[in-house]
């Protein structure tokens, strides 16, 4: 009897404590899940190398990433961590990548400025860029050693609004346009010219590229002035590396155009023409 008398309140308080513990564990689990939902980690493994490519119809050598030109697009949400493990597969020069527009709060060593925030990554070496993207927007990355940006080392970095937040405007689809300048002479040629005394200016770029695609000598003006009508690169079927980037849209839909210029030396003005008055453009 005595044991029962003493045991009942004990078992009741034990059950109560167990219940409180269960609720606490549940709350911890929920808060952990909420934290992991809010920000995630994006891992990329990149190899930077020179490769043959025809950005504007004429074959040349470009600096690509994982066999692609322009480099792969990075996409993350505000608050996420981006981790790029970069291996330098160039045989004779160092490399670094600058993440244009990313503030690098707390990670200045990931800013990618050679000899300032980091040593250049030597041929054969691997470096881990790990940083947080804290603001939504359209950004890009580019080589920041010598004229590597001019050699084609760039790509898009798009940051969406944080999980649970909404864009201030609504749209049905989006296009990401990367504008760049392209010379037929190498980036080394540009570099030597710029650092010579007196300086030698490389002149205007031979082509302007949209998402790494341009057409050299195929304009109407070139057709009349140079009699280039027989240039084989101008017979475009759509599958070529230099075939124009086509924006496919559906009627009555709204599209967002993300525009960034990775030009190395040229300054661009962009005009968007809207031929039908019922089409609205908001900038
Ligand atoms: Cu930059």
UniProtKB/TrEMBL annotation:
Keywords: Copper, Metal-binding, Oxidoreductase, Signal. InterPro entries: Cu-oxidase-like_N, Cu-oxidase_2nd, Cu-oxidase_fam, Cupredoxin, CuRO_1_AAO. Residues 48-160, 177-272 form the Plastocyanin-like domain. Residues 1-33 form the signal peptide. GO terms for cellular component: plasmodesma. One of its GO terms (molecular function) is oxidoreductase activity. Pfam families: Cu-oxidase (PF00394), Cu-oxidase_3 (PF07732). Belongs to the multicopper oxidase family. This is MULTI-COPPER OXIDASE. The lineage of its organism: Eukaryota, Viridiplantae, Streptophyta, Embryophyta, Tracheophyta.
């Amino acid at each position: 009897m005595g044991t029962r008398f003493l045991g009942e309140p004990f078992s009741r308080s034990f059950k109560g404590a167990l219940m409180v513990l269960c609720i606490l564990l549940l709350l911890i689990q929920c808060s952990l899940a909420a934290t992991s939902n809010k920000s995630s980690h994006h891992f990329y493994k990149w190899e930077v190398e020179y490769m043959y490519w025809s950005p504007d119809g004429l074959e040349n050598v470009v600096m690509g990433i994982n066999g692609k030109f322009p480099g792969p697009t990075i996409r993350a949400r505000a608050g996420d961590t981006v981790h790029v493990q970069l291996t330098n597969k160039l045989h004779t020069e160092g490399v670094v990548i600058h993440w244009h527009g990313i503030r690098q709060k707390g990670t200045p060593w990931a800013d990618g400025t050679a000899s300032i925030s980091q040593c250049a990554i030597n041929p054969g070496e691997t470096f881990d860029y790990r940083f947080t993207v804290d603001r939504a927007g359209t950004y890009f990355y580019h080589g920041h050693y010598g004229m590597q940006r001019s050699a084609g080392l760039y790509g898009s970095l798009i940051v969406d609004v944080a999980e649970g937040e909404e864009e201030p405007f609504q749209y049905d689809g989006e296009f990401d346009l990367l504008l760049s300048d392209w010379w037929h002479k190498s980036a080394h040629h540009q570099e030597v010219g710029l650092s010579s005394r007196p300086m030698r200016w490389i002149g205007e770029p031979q082509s302007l590229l949209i998402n790494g695609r341009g057409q050299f000598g195929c304009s109407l003006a070139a057709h009349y002035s140079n009699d280039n009508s027989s240039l084989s690169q101008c017979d475009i079927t759509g599958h070529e590396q230099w075939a124009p980037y086509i924006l496919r849209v559906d009627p009555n839909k709204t599209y967002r155009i993300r525009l960034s210029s990775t030009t190395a030396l040229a300054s661009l003005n962009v005009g968007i023409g809207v031929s039908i008055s019922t089409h609205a453009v908001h900038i």
